[in-house]
Specification:
By secondary structure, the chain is α/β, with parallel strands linked by helices. Strand 6 and strand 7 form a beta hairpin. It is elongated, with a radius of gyration of 37 Å. The N and C termini lie far apart (90 Å).
Length: 355
């Protein structure tokens, strides 16, 4: 009987020991699980903190970008268009892009198509375009001479762009335009309608419409509003036109390379001209305006015009502009898949202190 009691006690102790060990293991396992869970929670907290911090950094970056965008939204571009240089074709692209790229295009209509303004109108014009915030960013275009905003004490300096053409080609185009018009607005009656005298005949007869002095237009458009600018053959005007082109114009292209000029505008003014190159190439307005019944002048006529002082000066300005444009194009654009585009950023910042 005593032996049975001893056996029962031993078995009870064994069972208690097993249960105790099992309980201890469970407690230890739960402690380990709790520790792992706590570590996981801490990791998640750290990740969440890091995520929000990165979001804050990104938000700061976006805010900086938005600030930069705001500064570009204040941009003011003036295209003082020289007549018969394909300016209508270029503006067709701008009008097509303005809604998509969110900028405004405004035409400057002057009384009797005058190319110069009175002093009071100059002041009014400058006040209007600089203070009309609802219409910024803006591209103003019109047949007006260069105007220096700083002369009137305004701090905002507009971005000037322009396009010029070989002087004799421009004169011949304008000569026939006055007689036959173009395919842009063929219903309009032009000033010389009914006059069938060719340009060659006009030069032979020494009539006013083909007088070389009529070529004196691109130089004064860049020279400005000074009275000497509009004096045909004025040397000071030519030099002033060159100086203004270098100091005040962002880019000036040539009609003969209109596609390249559009590509340059997209590269240097993407806020307004993003997508302009492809639109120009694929759209229907790349050759929007063509003069009717235009006849190329004979070699004899060309030589007579080239013997004039006005042609030599206007051509000097054209060659000066062409040289500048080619240099800028070479530095700025690359050809990719047959299309000219921005060559990309070729500078970076380094050795920034303090760290």
């Amino acid at each position: 009987m005593w032996k049975i009691k001893q056996l029962f006690i031993i078995l009870s102790l064994i069972v208690c020991a097993v249960l105790y060990c099992h309980f201890v293991r469970k407690v230890l396992y739960q402690d380990e699980t709790i520790k792992k869970l706590a570590g996981t929670i801490n990791e998640l907290r750290l990740k969440d903190f890091d995520y929000h911090n990165r979001n804050d950094v990104l938000a700061d970056f976006v805010n900086v970008g938005e600030g930069t965008k705001d500064s570009f939204d204040d941009v003011l571009v003036i295209y003082n268009r020289v007549p018969k240089t394909a300016s209508t074709s270029l503006m067709g692209v701008a009008y097509d892009l303005c809604k998509r790229n969110k900028f405004h295009v405004l035409h400057i209509n002057t009384s009797r198509n005058m190319h110069v303004m009175s002093l009071s109108d100059q002041r009014r014009f400058i006040e209007n375009v600089t203070m009309w915030q609802d219409k910024k960013p803006a591209l103003y275009h019109g047949h007006i001479a260069f105007l220096n905003f700083q002369r009137y004490g305004f701090s905002q300096k507009p971005i000037y762009i322009n396009l010029i053409r070989k002087p004799l080609d421009r004169l011949v185009s304008y000569y026939y335009f006055l007689r036959y018009g173009d395919d842009f607005r063929p219903y309009l009656v032009r000033k010389r309608k009914g006059n069938t005298v060719t340009f060659d005949e006009c030069v032979e007869l020494q009539e006013n419409d083909c007088d070389p002095e009529n070529m004196w237009l691109q130089v004064p458009f860049f020279c400005g509003h000074h009275v000497d600018c509009w004096e045909p053959g004025n040397e000071w005007a030519l030099n002033q036109a060159k100086q203004n082109l270098v100091e005040h114009y962002l880019v000036v292209g040539v009609t003969e390379e209109l596609e390249d000029f559009v590509a340059m505008l997209e590269a240097v003014l993407p806020r307004l001209f993003r997508g302009a190159t492809r639109h120009f190439l694929e759209g229907k307005k790349s050759h929007l305006r063509k003069t009717y019944n235009k006849i190329d002048p004979s070699p004899e006529t060309v030589q007579k015009i080239r013997n004039s002082k006005i042609w030599r000066m206007e051509n000097e300005f054209y060659e000066f502009t062409l040289k500048q444009f080619h240099a800028m194009k070479k530095r700025t654009l690359i050809e990719k898949n047959g299309i000219l585009e921005d060559g990309g950023q070729r500078f970076f910042f380094e050795k920034i202190r303090p760290r």
